[in-house]
Amino acid sequence: MDYQNIIEEVYYYVLEEENVGAKPTYIPELAQVDEHKFGVYFYSLNKRRFGIGDYQERFSIQSIAKVLSTTLAYSILGDRLWERVSVEPSGTSFNSLVQLESDNGIPRNPLINSGAIVVCDILLSTLENAEEDFIEFVRDLANDHSIDYSQRVAQSEKSVGYRNFALCYYIKSLGNIVNDPIKVLDFYFKLCSVELSCEQLAYVFSFLANDGIRLHDREPVLTDTFTKRINAIMQTCGFYDESGEFAFKVGLPGKSGVGGGIVAIMPNQYSIAVWSPKLNAKGNSYRGMKFLEAFTQQTRTSIF
């Protein structure tokens, strides 16, 4: 299949259409990003690769990092992880508090804010230096040791992160946060500030298309069973209360972030990353969603 030609056609089709949506102005640093940026990078397991647009420019991956923190925690704890966080779609917005009381402080899944905060708490309790160990984990996945947190973005998020403070303290009151909430939140804000390009992001997630094995050194990150479960969580929970819509229109496991990034994988075939900062009403990249819907229609790829 001529993926390059299809990507070019879909990219220019989406580029010419109206760029609907808005940047997440509630995070000051993200409000400064050029809303016209648009990049795509495709990485196949047989080493075919192609980028177009702003695919080499780094951006804040935000909630996409939650897949990676969950992966790291899962690789250490195994199924004990699910004692602290569930694997059900939430059906609510990413920063909702409404289900926590009825669920006794157990977040519905690790890809909403409350779930990612609990995973941060787990990593802080499990690793000697969680912040450094996590960023090293991402660097190893990318085979690129220039990757880092953005202190500027992390501080910007902390300055307005009242809802996340509320989530963390509320979960603490219900007994599912062990560490000091300020320490947990500092790690959480750093986690969301990791900056990657579309090119780096597509490669970082390629292990999830490859039965949990890193491509550059053939080292296993997860077992094939654990990999399928992470992919299942992305499929059902990766887009908050638009996850069903993404499954319906795109049909791939994926994850979005309010920085405008989306990454998706086709098991045993490819990973693909898209970045466009303007978000739709559900907090997902408008152009990113539109591109991936057209891309999977043209390539006839889907897990279904």
Automatic annotation (TrEMBL):
GO biological process: glutamate biosynthetic process; L-glutamine catabolic process
Molecular-function GO terms, alphabetical: glutaminase activity
Alphabetical UniProt keywords: Acetylation, Hydrolase
Residue sites binding substrate per the record: 63, 113, 157, 164, 188, 240, 258
Reaction(s) catalysed by this chain's protein: L-glutamine + H2O = L-glutamate + NH4(+)
SUPFAM superfamilies listed in its UniProt record: beta-lactamase/transpeptidase-like
Domain of life from the UniProt record: Bacteria
One Pfam short name: Glutaminase
Enzyme class: hydrolase
InterPro entries: Beta-lactam/transpept-like, Glutaminase
EC number: 3.5.1.2
PANTHER family to which the protein is assigned, alphabetical: GLUTAMINASE
Subunit structure comment from the entry: Homotetramer.
Similarity-based family: Belongs to the glutaminase family.
Protein name: Glutaminase
Organism, as annotated: Capnocytophaga haemolytica
Lineage per the UniProt record: Bacteria, Pseudomonadati, Bacteroidota, Flavobacteriia, Flavobacteriales
Gene name linked to the record: glsA
